[in-house]
């Protein structure tokens, strides 16, 4: 094996993300810059992601705070898997649900794409939708609060 086939992993961005993970009390954090993307989660799992939806870093901080605020809220519907959120059945279509809608148990509220499979997510709660905590095409982690039902 020659030296060109060896890959050198830069540890600085991993350490910086781990520090942010602890400071914001998150279970996972991701960063993307051009073709470089990295995700760090507690449990020492690090994975490279080829493509991520672009978003503003301030939005990411606000979303991380919202996740922390609602993690143990009994009104929260949580993500059953890691994936990408879609709030409507197809581009240009109406959302599955909107703030203020009456939600029934078993009603499809969004789709999570995981490993190129579209998974309809049904409500586990019944009541009025008071807040949508995720954005369309946002990456989510397992157990992340998605919506609040009152």
Q: Give the count of helical stretches.
A: 2
* Distance N to C terminus: 61 Å
CATH A-level architecture of the largest domain: Beta Barrel
Largest sheet: 4 strands, antiparallel
Q: How much of the residues is beta strand, in percent?
A: 25-35%
The number of distinct β-strands equals 11
Shape: globular
CATH class category of the largest domain? Mainly Beta
Poorly predicted runs of 5 or more residues: 44-61
The total domain count is: 2
SSE string, helices as H and strands as E: HEEEHEEEEEEEE
Mean pLDDT: 76
CATH superfamily of the largest domain, by name, is RNA polymerase II/Efflux pump adaptor protein, barrel-sandwich hybrid domain
Query: How is the CATH topology of the largest domain named?
Result: OB fold (Dihydrolipoamide Acetyltransferase, E2P)
In what order do the strands lie side by side in the largest sheet?
A: 4-11-9-6
Structural class: alpha+beta
Query: Could you estimate the helical fraction of the residues in percent?
Result: 10-25%
User: What gyration radius follows from the Cα positions, in whole Å?
Assistant: 17 Å
What does this structure look like?
- With 150 residues, the chain is of the alpha+beta class.
- The chain folds into two domains: 7-52, no CATH class; 72-150, OB fold (Dihydrolipoamide Acetyltransferase, E2P).
- The chain has helices at 12-23, 57-70, and strands at residues 28-33, 36-41, 45-47, 76-78, 83-86, 102-103, 108-114, 117-122, 127-132, 139-140, 145-149.
- The strands form three sheets. It has a four-stranded antiparallel β-sheet, with helices on one face. The protein has a four-stranded antiparallel β-sheet with strand order 8-7-5-10, with no helix packed on it.
- Strand 7 (108-114) and strand 8 form a beta hairpin.
- The termini are far apart.
- 22% of the residues are buried.
- Residues 44-61 have low confidence and may be disordered.
């Amino acid at each position: 094996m020659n030296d060109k086939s060896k890959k050198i992993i830069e540890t600085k961005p991993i350490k910086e993300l781990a520090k942010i993970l602890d400071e914001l009390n998150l279970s996972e954090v991701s960063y993307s810059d051009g073709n470089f993307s990295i995700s760090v989660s507690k449990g020492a799992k690090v994975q490279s992601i080829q493509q991520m939806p672009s978003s503003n870093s301030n939005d990411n901080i606000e979303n991380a705070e919202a996740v922390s605020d609602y993690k143990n809220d009994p009104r929260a519907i949580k993500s059953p898997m890691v994936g990408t959120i879609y709030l409507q059945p197809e581009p240009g279509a109406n959302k599955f649900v909107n703030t203020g809608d009456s939600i029934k148990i078993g009603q499809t509220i969004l789709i999570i794409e995981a490993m190129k499979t579209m998974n309809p997510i049904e409500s586990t709660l019944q009541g009025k939708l008071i807040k949508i905590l995720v954005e369309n095409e946002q990456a989510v982690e397992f157990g992340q609060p998605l919506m609040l039902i009152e």
